[in-house]
Design goal:
The protein has four helices and 13 strands. By secondary structure, it is of the alpha/beta class. The strands form two sheets. It has a five-stranded mixed beta barrel with strand order 2-3-4-6-5. A five-stranded mixed barrel has the order 9-10-11-13-12. The longest helix is centred in the first third of the chain and has 29 residues. The protein is elongated. 26% of the residues are buried.
């Protein structure tokens, strides 16, 4: 290859690299999400039409898994009484097992008029809670007393049955087994947030009540101390 051809090839290569770098920068910027709080996004009219990442707390009772797509509301984390600004998330992605009332959700999507955030990407975070099992029933003990324990607040301790964890909104969130190794198991219904540590074989202490059908309606799920 002569010198002129080599220089021409080098020049073309440099131009191609510049074009590729520019294209990558453009598409990266186009797809980048702006981090915003709930309070910031509802006050910013320029947020409409932008891709954003919003962190907020899921408002209790604002979601229904059966709707398609599922919608829910998020608020500021420190707005415990739900009196501050909220936005509605229209969610089309897979629902994390840790999702539920009161969970911290990091939602990425396109913000639209009417305080709507359309998203297919969500990460949930929930701090772990710990509880002593000293005053809790084992699964077998509770089932033996089931008729006397209906609609009475009671704690039960057990181990999460492998493969039983489900997203919220169904008849059963997960199943617990006797911590002592007996074969008895108990269906747990819970629509609240779960920490990532509540997983297969985790030892848990649950607060709630038995219903008339023998299902346990949980109000709080903690890891055993």
């Amino acid at each position: 290859m002569n010198k002129r051809a080599r220089n021409r090839l080098i020049g073309i290569s440099v131009i191609l690299l510049v074009v590729i770098a520019g294209a990558l920068l453009f598409f990266t910027q186009q797809g980048a999400a702006t981090n915003m709080t709930v309070a910031e996004i509802v006050k910013d009219p320029e947020a409409v039409g932008r891709r954003v990442e919003v962190t907020g707390t899921v408002v209790n009772g604002s979601w229904d898994k059966k709707t398609n797509p599922m919608t829910f509301k998020i608020r500021e984390a420190d707005d415990k009484k739900d009196v501050g600004p909220q936005i509605t998330v229209v969610y089309t992605g897979g629902l994390p097992q840790t999702f539920g009332d009161g969970v911290e959700a990091i939602v990425t999507g396109d913000y639209e008029q009417g305080e709507l955030l359309k998203s297919a990407s969500m990460i949930t975070k929930c701090p772990s809670k710990y509880e002593s099992s000293t005053d809790a029933y084992q699964v077998t003990q509770l089932k033996e007393r089931a008729e006397q324990m209906v609609n009475i607040p009671v704690k039960v301790a057990g181990v999460v049955k492998p493969g039983s964890l489900q997203p919220p909104g169904g008849a059963v969130r997960f199943i617990i087994l006797n911590a002592e190794g007996a074969s008895d198991e108990l269906n747990i219904k819970f629509d609240g947030a779960l920490s990532d540590e509540v997983k297969d074989d985790a030892k848990v202490v649950i607060t709630g009540e038995l219903d008339e059908n023998g299902a346990y309606i949980a109000t709080e799920v903690a890891l055993e101390k």
